[in-house]
């Protein structure tokens, strides 16, 4: 009994010392786990025919979990291929949809991109990691501030976040190479078409109950529309007049 008791106390002490030794390294361990989760996410995206190497690298390096507000961060797997709540009735899009919409836009370094629906800021971060100059509008001021702070903390100084009505577009007279909309309007907002340069492209979910991704290309002042995947996004909300 003494021998067994001594062995038990030795094991308890060893376990306590091990936990104490690890207590100073939780960030490193968590960082490693997060990196592994991102790698699994990227492997899944590649298996679903996301081919853009720069895009996959951006999604491998951008810490998606940090864009989820703290109150929701531990309620679901941030790297699972599903959307998740971020508060105020809004969601962070599933990784596949972020990747798919970004790849369909064919983002190039130095392009000016208007994003409608900043949400968590994750989509803006991916665009910025690809070298784009991003202008993002979010109608919920608290989410706009959250995204602005996280983007700043992550060093994305090529993103401007504005709290405002996406239907009105960017307030300055800027013409954009591409527009990406991450909330669903019933019709394509005219102002967004006006702010799209000739030769530019826009992707957005369109519809109310039945939604589909739509890709618009502006050529000679005319808009060509291509219907794409069926999707489900939160509705695009108008601001007060």
- Strand content bin: 15-25%
The CATH superfamily title: Vaccinia Virus protein VP39
User: What's the story with the biggest beta sheet?
Assistant: 7 strands, mixed
CA radius of gyration is 22 Å
What would you say this structure looks like, in words?
- The protein is an alpha/beta fold and 241 residues long.
- The protein has one domain (6-231): Vaccinia Virus protein VP39 (Rossmann fold, 3-Layer(aba) Sandwich), CATH 3.40.50.150.
- Helices cover 39% and strands 24% of the residues.
- The protein is built from eight helices and nine strands.
- It has helices at 2-23, 26-47, 53-61, 70-73, 95-105, 122-129, 141-153, 190-194, and strands at residues 84-87, 90-92, 112-116, 133-138, 159-163, 176-181, 196-206, 211-219, 222-231.
- The strands form two sheets. Strands 5-4-3-6-7-8-9 form a seven-stranded mixed β-sheet. The protein has a two-stranded antiparallel ribbon with strand order 1-2.
- α2 packs antiparallel against α3.
- The termini are far apart.
- Residues 1-29 have low confidence and may be disordered.
